[in-house]
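Lecture notes, unit on protein representations.

Consider one protein chain, 626 amino acids long.
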Amino acid sequence: MTEDRAAVVQRVKQANDIVDVVSSYVALRPAGGTFKGLCPFHDDNRPSFDVDPRRQRYRCWSCGKYGDVISFVQEQERVDFREALELLARRAGISLENRGAAQHNQGRALMLDVMRWAAEQFQLCLLDDESPEAQAARLYLGERRLTGETVRRFGVGYAPPTGQWLVERATAASLSLDLLEKVGLIARRDSGGCYDRFRDRVMFPIRDIRGQTVGFGGRIMPASPLVARVPKYYNSCETPLFNKSEQVYGLDLAREPAGKVGFLAVVEGYTDVLMAHQLGVGNVVATMGTALNASHVRQLRRFSPRVVLVYDADEGGDTGVDRALEIFVSQDIDLRIATLPEGLDPCDLLIRDGAESFKAALTKAVDVLEFKLNRVLAAGVSSGVEGQRQAVEATLGVIARGADLACKQPGLPAIETILDRIALAPPLPGQAGAVKQELMITRIAHRLGLKEETVWARLKELRTARRGAERTTPARDVPKGSGAASRSAPASRLERELLAILLAEPALVPVAVADVSPRDVEHPGLRQLVEGLYRLHAEGVAPEFDRLRPRIENQALMAKALELQEEGLMNPDRAKWLTAVLAGFRARRSLPEKQELQTQLQAALGAGDQARAQELLQRLQNLTGG
């Protein structure tokens, strides 16, 4: 960077208001002078995440996460300080010169650049009327009744079948093939050279919640010569940008409509999402070929408290519904199921009957427990008392457990499967979880005509059996240095105050240097901060926080430093405060000598050596300033 590093950091921070940045990841609502939302860093059950526009800080009052706009991007994007600064600079249109070594140039910002470039190439290929290789793809999308506007809005493209098409374009554009390999666009042959991972496929860019392309889903052309030996749908492999178990297709465009209608609808296919949006049902998303999981739910819940899973009529009761029931039990979310006419997927229904029919199906959605109860009771009604007993076992099993027992015991009735799922589902913590569980038990008892006490007793038995099974499972070895044992003891108040002062007022660092050595600071993290500030001072530059940040990779430590800086800024007379703190360090350093003099003084008095006692007393008074 040609300009002063600290000035660059300040310019980037000033150009990226923390509320604007955080709200691109988390739904925020005004709450007095701050904004509140669900914390993105833990499984938040109530809005405990505060964003303060005045201080440009965020804090979660539940998990303790704290920081500024750069810290937030570091945590959310899982990048280091330099890459977070680069991402925010690009967001604000600020150019950072001299970006450093090759390792840094392989960072997230450049990976996002190459993914955007690839998406543009695929779409240009599809939309170029002069490219005959994409004609079949254009016809396919036309047959699916997708308009040019929808195709452009979602960035749909086409990857030709040659296997070298993207490699050749990247080479011509002087792009790093290593970088293309890192983001999953190409792969290397054992015999040498590279080939395209996506061939003869309609390409659907998969975007994060900020609209940045992080991966691709490719649909093989129906008449492709490759169709017999490759999967119909093929997603990007796992990369630093993409994890299909966490990504939700279309969420960048669906989050705002979902906020207006109050829920998100989850479908299965890319074209289902495209057609729904095309016909004005904008709150529709899709998972990446995987069943809805807890990671998806945490992401969806940031933008809507209700999620509706859309199934064909013949899909209800399958493993996907059972997993959904487990999620319903263990997560603080209103999870519902909507069914469509048999044999129709959402795209087919939308084309045949229009948006109103699809909206009506979403409106009729029932919560997943009710959905499953209806099915197991319908299946067990002809079985009399035994059928009802199995229905109880099935439903309680999901409340108390949530295991994949159906996969392990194929012959087990669907009712028993629910029993085992509820029995092992991780309990939802807090009062919200207790209330939800009581409501479920009340509903089950009412539907089956049983006393609630009987249902609770059976649930207790199932949980007892679960705990017994867990005790027989060998415990995993915990690596040394992991968990709480590896954490440092809390820092002393004296050391915290020293850092609070120095981080808030760098001009006082030279005063501290003359009186406090880093060795005087016992807490290892705070010692590292003191050493960093002293080193900046020794180099002849202002020992400011934003100059310190790039030198320390420990994000948790820097978050604590931000917090200490905030504490320091609240005290207007930091020079006087530092004087008292330095006196405290001197007293702490003298403590061992003081204790030794006191021991010698007691011995002299015991021996009746008044002259020696007087000498020791004088030394003790001089040491303590008395």
